[in-house]
Design a protein that fits this description.
Elements lengths: L1 H13 L1 H8 L2 E5 L3 H13 L19 H4 L5 E5 L24 H10 L7 E4 L10 H5 L3 E4 L4 H14 L3 E7 L2 E7 L18 E2 H5 L5 H17 L9 E2 L6 H18 L7 H18 L16 H6 L5 H8 L9 H20 L12 H17 L7 H8 L7 H21 L20 E2 L6 E2 L6 E5 L8 E5 L13 E8 L6 H11 L5 E5 L2 E4 L12 H7 L4 E6 L8 E8 L9 E4 L9 H7 L24 H14 L19
Parallel strand pairs: 1-2, 1-4, 2-3, 4-5, 7-8, 13-17
Antiparallel strand pairs: 5-6, 6-11, 9-10, 11-12, 13-18, 14-15, 14-16, 16-17
Helix pairs in contact: 1-2, 3-17, 9-15, 10-11, 13-14, 14-15
Length: about 675
Amino acid sequence: MQRRGRDSGISQSLGKPLTKRVKESRVLLVGAGGIGCEVLKNLVCCGFGSKQSGLDSAAPDVRSGPAATAFRQPGIVVIDLDTIDLSNLNRQFLFRKQHIKKPKAFVAKETASQFNPSVNIEAHHASIFDSKYNVNFFEGFDLVFNALDNLAARRHVNKMCLAADVPLIESGTTGFNGQVQAIKKGVTECYDCNPKPVQKSFPICTIRSTPSQPIHCIVWAKSYLFPELFGTSEEDSTDVGVTESDNAEEVAKLKVEAEALKSVRRMMGKSEFAQEVFDKVFQDDIERLKSMTEMWQSRTPPESLRYEALKAEMDADIIKRGQALATQDQATWSLHDNLAVFCYSLDTLSSRAQSGEPVIEFDKDDKDTLDFVASAANLRSHAFGIPLHSEWEIKQMAGNIIPAIATSNALTASLCVMEAFKIMRSQPQEQNGLSKPTANNNLPTTTQTAISGKVEPTLGGAKMVFLNSRSTERMITTQGLVAPRPECPVCSPVYAKLAVAADSSATLQELVLLLQEKVGYDEFSITTDAGVIYDPDLEDNLPKQLTEYASAAHGNSFITVTDESDEAKVDLALSLTVTPTTSGGAATLDIIPQHISLPLKPQKAAEADGAVDGDADSAPVPASAGAKRKRDAEEEVESAKKRAKAGKAEVQEIDDDGVINLEDD
């Protein structure tokens, strides 16, 4: 009776045809965090994937390829690599205290199943980068939801959905703001059509010699001092980098300084370890900086700190005092308090390092590492006359955190499912007569339905939706879907599959011949993640077996073929598909689909039509790795100018759980 009532309410809202399609759908949810929990709850309550398996339970598949002809079990697949942390409980409502340290995906499935037991949920505690989640895997879904917290994973899922030709709903929040974006190959712009902000870094001399802001001291403690003592060297850090404004002589001295700190690290475990570290970084190094008088002509010089003098002014045991103070993370510690916490955290981290944890990485949710970074940053701030901050404030700055708002996640997740309804409503039951070009450069903005012949809005009227806390009159605003950017290196290529037999010994030479015969290439280059493996001037690799390169591209990476001729066509991106062992003379190497049509690259098409070059919107496509190796100097200079113009657009990157993402892949 309860289930009949649920189905009745959904049918009245959506209509029986869409309700049936929702129940027969198979969707993928990547991420089970703040937004992911809310999306999963909404999908379950709306009956996504609730059709029970049976001979007649599979809905007609609107896509082509191997996955379209095989039976697909309706349901929801959830993939998440993380485990549940205490800090998740204030906004990820599917989790409780007893679930801490358990995989998010498994617990989310267990809890969400109680809302609607008829829904088939499949949980994977794994990374979306795993090779098993290849293009064939993505082809098995009607829709994919992104609820991720990092740029690299978002870009990866975006590319896999483009290759599988599956609609993607991208979402994110930051504080009270949020956004939802529908993405479909050839119909809308993809996630990478707009440039994303690169990771913010600071000049090394500012961080190590002349800090003027609290963040400078925090980065120094997080990316220099902590790794030098307990992790890897600053040379591997992306927070600190050498810039043109840095003094070369000073940079050389800083490297010598870092080497000296490594010798102090060898004293770990001895009773005088804390004093040696303190004297090195807060006395000796600061005295050296202070002696460089020309550096302090226009700014106040720092004051060094002395361990013995500060410790003599403290009555209680310094380690016990630090342990007690570490629990008071919202209080601003005094100079002596920071010394106590510094010594306590050094003692704790040293014990961890000596008990079999040779490399310790900073994690804002790792209390020991946070205690060290907070106290060290405050001690340095005091030396340079910079205001001190509480550990809570330092945690926010060190982790690039904007406090997550549970209601923002809930609103954004509901908008995701609303857009999903529109997309599913727009998918025709059959492909009869449906226009389906081979590349996104010539796809119409409307879709003709096969049944009625009416012109329907793109993706069923889906929009880009935004939560905007600045507007008190209308918090939810929309924007029409934008067409793909023709020069986008991610969605402009034509995606296909390179089918390789499991027992194949095919060589790169055979792939080159296959591309010449099947696609009609003349001059072209082939690129993998490792770089260019073939072009007209690089033929040394032709005798090598494809397995040497295909192993790197197996599953979820791509082999990119770039046309080098004057009439250049768009790139061809091949995903590797391993087929069963060959028999009966079957081909060991093939490209799927059998017929591939590559349109000209946008700038070449414009030249053929006699268009006047000079508009930034028709700027040449930036060459991929190894492409256009024979382009002359004039074209290279002109292309660089246009790329510089096109690169001025500023895009805000929003992440789940309130993180402003500063990563680059």
